Amino acid sequence: xxxxxxxxxxxAASSAPPASSATPSTPTLDHSASAAAPATAASATHAKAPxxxxxxxxxxxxxxxxxxxxxxxxxxxxxxxxxxGAIPTPQATWQQAITVFSDPFYRNGPNxxxxxxxxxxxxxxxxxxxxxxxxxxxxxxxxIGRFAFLSRMCNPIIGLLRPxxxxxxxxxxxxxxxxxxxxxxxxxxxxxIWPMVINTAVGVQRVPQDYMNVARVLNLxxxxxxxxxxxxxxxxxLLTGVRLAVxxxxxxxxxxxxxxxxxxxxxxxxxxxxNLNVTNIIIAIFVIGVVGLMLEWALVKLASAxxxxxxxx
Length: 313
What we know:
Blueprint: H1 2-7, H2 9-82, H3 90-102, H4 115-146, H5 148-161, H6 166-177, H7 180-205, H8 209-217, H9 222-260, H10 265-274, H11 278-304, H12 309-312
């Protein structure tokens, strides 16, 4: 009996440890699994955050222009319906645009060419007139801004001639050059020179006086002052003048070509008006706007390439 008393609890005692050792093992495995799940979810959330932010920024940047175009097309449709079809609808204009741009570089004669040739002819005249204006206007602006006497002498003349309408210069060009093409180039030249002269002169006048004092101490020549001090400081103003001049030149060439004739986007608009083709006139308006926008964008990129925060903004 004694042995029974002492040996009976032994199996229970020996079996107890496995039970106790197995009991804590189960919660340990559950804890590691539950810890891994939040980590995976957090990493997935963190990976999705930049994508969501990028999509939100793109949507915020694209929504206002799209809304503006929707409103423009809506107003266009209302005007078209109120004029009983005198102004073509956006759908009719789109169909005609597909036809026009399906062959933009055809030639059926000197006065019957595709819209591509007309745009290229206008850009050629703009490049020539603007190039001549830059060759004259930028150095003139440097000289006017550098010397106070010349500034006081030229300011009244610039103030008198700058507000003159571009079309007022066209008869002078026809009289002097005896030709429509040089007269159009002359009109572009005389109208696009003023923004470059004025902005360059203002930039030179706003160069800090400390820079000029250092140049005087170093006994630099005028050429050294212009190339090493004035040009880098004036560059933002100069590029602003160039942007304004290109916009003015593109505006002027359309009006000049309407009066001079020949090949050009302005003449194409006038010729379509003579044919009472309002749809092609609206297409030309959009083409003129797109080309002007591309010129502006190219000059903004050129200005941004030269750093200067005020140019980038």
